[in-house]
């Protein structure tokens, strides 16, 4: 080794920095698939899959060899998946890895998309809300309701939803407002839960439409927020939205609401979101908001 170093110096070649990758053994850059698998592996406890914790476990979740065993693949192959050296597993392998990592239907769907096993969803170019749906929103005076577009933009909202969300100050994009609008952080009783769920849902949109300019613009804007960057790095995927939210509203007090979400069949990619009060106090809070709207 010393003679090799001496020859390099004599030839005038610069020695590589100790932390630099060796030219013969380059470091592998994880793919999006590999990063997702690693994050999912860290979230699974050994006891969740019937394994012993052990005394000298150095990783927060499963070891790679444990995932490989549970998935029925070789350790080397699974390591290549996480390291980005393999990015196109078969459907059978993806299913086995998904089971090993205890992914739900949304997590498994995300894994399939990252592995190129499902085609990206075509983005809708027209985000106009149909007149009949606008009329229906207006008829719901007792229920806040709005229509979401493909990048979490609020395309239309009835007056009660406008009042509930403080008129959507600053932006009408739910991801942006959650992180970039100070008023929204105080509006939710449990902002952290709402924020993480919103990020996890947006990750599905991004994976399905990675080239969509609207989605990329939203990510560029919200990426300035440190909380968002930390939650995005978790690589959590949640398809099902929160079923309830509690608002601490400056004009309506504490309002507990159940949430229902429906796909708009006439406009693929759009969602109708409807809130319903579950207590008398919450119904009274919504009534106060209605009274303020005249």
UniProtKB/TrEMBL annotation:
Coiled coil stretches, renumbered: none
Region spans: Disordered: 1-25
Cited InterPro entries: Cro/C1-type_HTH, Lambda_DNA-bd_dom_sf, MLTR_LBD
Residue stretches of biased makeup (Basic residues): 1-12
All residue ranges annotated as the MmyB-like transcription regulator ligand binding domain in the record: 129-288
CDD domains named among the record's database cross-references: HTH_XRE (cd00093)
Signal peptide (from-to): none
Protein name listed in UniProt: XRE family transcriptional regulator
Organism from which the protein derives: Amnibacterium setariae
Lineage summary: Bacteria, Bacillati, Actinomycetota, Actinomycetes, Micrococcales
